[in-house]
Write a structure and sequence with these properties.
This protein is 38% helix and 18% strand. The protein is of the alpha/beta class. The structure holds nicotinamide-adenine-dinucleotide.
Amino acid sequence: LIRVGIFGVGYVGCTLLVGLARLKAGMIDHTGIPLGECVAGYRTKDIEPVLLVDVDAAKIGARVGDFVSMYPELDAESLNDLPMVEAGVELGSLEGMPIMHAGLDQKLTLEECAQRIKNMIKDRDLDVVVIITPTEEIRRIESIEKLEDAIRADRKDDITACQFYSYCALSVAHERGRGICVINGIPSEIANSTAFVKFAQRTNSVIIGDDISSGQSRLLSDLAEHFRQLNRRVLSVVGGNWGGNADFLRLEDSKRKQSKKTTKTGCLSDVLGYDPPSDIKPHAYIGPLGDKKAILIHWPYQAFNNTIDELWVVGRISDSPSAAGMLIDMIRLGKVALDRGLNGVVPEINSFYCKRFGKQKSKILAYRELMEWLAG
Ligand SMILES: NC(=O)c1ccc[n+]([C@@H]2O[C@H](COP(=O)([O-])OP(=O)(O)OC[C@H]3O[C@@H](n4cnc5c(N)ncnc54)[C@H](O)[C@@H]3O)[C@@H](O)[C@H]2O)c1
């Protein structure tokens, strides 16, 4: 079994839970999970969600089946043995959202909260922690010691929820003498933070992140590879998307939008070797679109004999299932990495599944390296 804790039981979290339950019940097949059942010895049905954490007052103490119908495509059928949702720390992640929070940090100091979260992770004996909380402003930490100073001094403004959960998970790995895998599914810097990576190395743990590359951004990186190989020059790129889920609503806040923009750009210049003028970001919250976002890409380029051509891509893409399908692989590969005795980040996993990790390559090339790594 792979014992998993999910921090943030929202659209993506619930899609993952419902999808896993339906897979186990034989109601759906592996379509949409990149590696399907090709991870020898690590089956999708071995994934066992044993801890669910949220800060929404309406979810804490409830079962997923009680609230899953708030997401129109999901239902409670086949959701039987999931644990009750427990309270996490909010630390500003619901700021400006129409949700009442009942996070532990309302009443407890950061030190007390850390103790509670660490106990949950320890008691459930987690192998993998998945962080899929709302997009937050990107904050950087200098060192784990500085982060511990902020916790001791109860400076709640100096630490984000994602950093807090990652810190607690890695501390548990240290205390119990057995590594853990932290999957950061959101645009904060954990796999891209030297301090967190060093902490993971010290605790025989693995970090996968940051953010999940599940839609438009990975298509852009593969398009860039196509044009690079053909030596056609990309003149500019605009990429827009509009959606109606809570994540888009939160991106109306400029600091959070900047976090998404940061993880979406960078791949073009890394793959192409030059930096065409570009604007790639989520544009606005449009309620009626729901989870099925509208995307638009405009890609003019120069071909042989000074010809100028243009590519347009338009589509509607279901946001949460795209990310949840990839998480099923990330969880299994995190456990594979732990079982192989690896620590820190495994570039082959990060490059294929995540938006940002060091110099980027196209996902098509990253796939080849991932398969070679998996073959051992
Ligand atoms: N395709 C995708 O949908 C996709 C792709 C990549 C990354 N992501 C990332 O996934 C994250 C979640 O997206 P979503 O659509 O599920 O959002 P959502 O708002 O539906 O879900 C977030 C959940 O986290 C809970 N939460 C809020 N603050 C919390 C905290 N501090 N601790 C624990 N739980 C907390 C909320 O109550 C909610 O249940 C976002 O950061 C987004 O950037 C999504």
